[in-house]
Specification:
The complex is a heterodimer of chains A (about 425) and B (about 325). Chain A has about 425 residues and is of the alpha+beta class. Chain A folds into 2 domains: about 325 residues, FAD/NAD(P)-binding domain (3-Layer(bba) Sandwich), CATH 3.50.50.60; about 90 residues, no CATH class. Helix content of chain A is about 30%, strand content about 20%. In chain A, a hairpin with a 2-residue loop joins strand 7 and strand 8. The model of chain A has no long low-confidence stretch (mean pLDDT about 95). With about 325 residues, chain B is of the alpha/beta class. Chain B has a 6-stranded antiparallel barrel. In chain B, strands 7-12-11-8-9-10 form a 6-stranded mixed beta sheet, with helices on both faces. In chain B, helix 9 packs across helix 10. The longest helix of chain B has 14 residues. The model of chain B has no long low-confidence stretch (mean pLDDT about 95). Classes of the chains: A alpha+beta (about 425), B alpha/beta (about 325). The interface between A and B is medium-sized, with 29 and 19 residues.
Chain lengths: ~425, ~325
Amino acid sequence: MVNIVVIGGGWAGCAAALSARQAGAEVLLLEKTDMLLGLGNVGGIMRNNGRYTAAEEMIGLGMGKLFDITDRAARHSMVEFPGHSHATLYDVTKVEPMVRRLLKEVGVEIRLMARAIDTIKKGNVIKGILMADDTVIEGDVFVETTGSTGPMGNCLKYGNGCSMCILRCPSFGPRISLSQRAGVEDILGQRGDECYGAFSGSCKLNKDSLSEEIREKLNRVGVVVLKVPEEDIRVEKLSVKVCQQYALKEYAENIVLLDTGHAKLMTPFYPLEALRKIPGLENARYEDPYSGGKGNSVRYLSIAPRDNAMKVEGLVNMLCGGEKSGLFVGHTEAITTGSLAGHNSVRLALGMPLLELPRNLVTGDIIAYANERINTKEGLKKRYTFAGAEYFERMKERKMYTIDRQEIERRVSRMDLTDIFSEKLV
Amino acid sequence: MIGKKLECIDAGSEYCPCFLAETNECITCSHLQGKEFCDCNWRGVCIYQEYVWAGNRKKESRSSYPAAVVEKNQVSDNTIVYKLQVTKTLARELDNPGAYVFMKEKEKPGFFDVPMSVMAVDSARGEIYVAVQVRGAKTKALTGSENDIIVRGPYWNGILGQRYLKSVKDGNCLVIARGIGQVPAVMVVRYLSRGNNRVRIIIDPGKIGVVLGNEFIKGLPCEVEELDLNSRQGVKVVNRYLKNENYDLVFSGGSDKQHLHIIQEVDRLENKPFIVVTNNNEICCGEGICGSCSTRIDSGVRVKACKVQLDVRKVIERRILNG
């Protein structure tokens, strides 16, 4: 029997738990809050630009179950908005229970409100995870997907203070970097001005607080673009946000709203008074973060050095995924890295060679590319996503971007990797 | 990188952040230890946030209050029980196991402040009960005068293992108290009773030669027994109870030697109860500043025992067994 412990129940952790379970391991998933998916509860954008290619690759590799959920929970598909094509917008109010049910069905043990605070080590081997209630959880291999966002002190020092985001640190306690606790120093992302961290890139407005016209259009087409009054345009704000795929001039001059159940506002934060000057938003109020008029969560403050098989350097039996594993943005990127980490955790426990995804798949290439770039000064200021900025450009240049499903299926099968993540190893 | 995980008794209280935050010596918060990123021993609030919102300053410190002596009873040769009139707020804040105040005679300078455990409080009337064993210059100056007393507080770290006290409900508990160690035991018994625990109390009058606090535990569901804990018979009885009664929690009020004896006996048991003890460190300022309570724990880390809920075993073993 192989016991895998996944710490952190965001998209990366859920993907890791699912892929480890599909490989035949006993899997325990620990999550500090009372909900899975973490920031996935307030995200929702899938399949935009190169994410379409990546999603189809992951489906070909055997992780179709999660994409099936995000597709089924979609409020809109094939949406176009500035700089982005063929996006799917999942309904954030539906997706978490669906993922939770799936994981339970396949036999992942989920422990909620379980906060990990330290590792127990023997040499470079992790023996167990110390929990906030002083209990110890043992396992063969550990996958850290605790993310890189917050906690409160960091959001204050590197941002505008706690903005009461979905992670709810005051209620559930802070994120702890377990790899750092185990003696492996974190890598820190920077923003344009070389300050550490970056703001989360969007906030959500309560849809019922918007004008009927906007609400109706959101429900119908999924996107509404509104002009920002001349005096409120702040192009410089773009450099502080994590989502460089949305750091376009259009996003400074316009308010871009997407319908994800809430009205997703594609800017890190926006003073409420200023927001309410825009026709149709006179009564607007924030849904997430609650204090979106003031700030947003600060991210990329805790990245573990890792190899391209997702194993944390310097530790024998810890892997990582999601933002913990690099300067990645987005659910698709979290699922990609998490899936590989989960799969390799089982290989590691069995003494098998670890899998590296080939670089002629975009999923393999982004993992390797982000790892190369994180070692450079410039690279620390960039974010890596299939959806835009530097990496999407690279995808296009290398002719890897396509939405031709058959072509993507062919690419995966040519590598002899079809359904590798759903193959039982134990 | 495993940081020391110290639990500050004041974390999150209205006196937090304190002087230690201003000097980058905070027990809990990594930012307020001069580090760059969050890595705290979370106590339910972000101390850094509190600090920044207070204008990068500590919160208002504890105050000193003149306290009228309502009653002063010489209960034995060397022991005096005071009933003091304080504010209702202070009395309420002191209604907690491990609560103590600093006391001095009104005219004396600050270094006459002596820490005293609170035995009981009447928060409706704003009165507190304190027992003083006369031992040295400070207690003599205090008890020798009929003047008003200056009280500084509230402080809470008079008992180590407080989270265990708070976690045991509907359980079976043993309270062992000797000499002046009976004073904090009163609040412990009352607290455990509130949690619907059965409590057996073993009292040894010890050096103060008197049983204290009977009136405060009257009517509570507990059995009281008087014993000489230093006699062979006394030791035998305690050991027998520990062995046969399957306790969830044992409280020791008394010397480090008494604590050690109980820890050693407990270690022989199969079901190990939680151990809660009186904090016997020499406390002088109560604010983590003066250094008199500084205690070394493993790997040479120095800890301010007036503020930190120390691991009982580590402290006692180090101090008694390793010198």
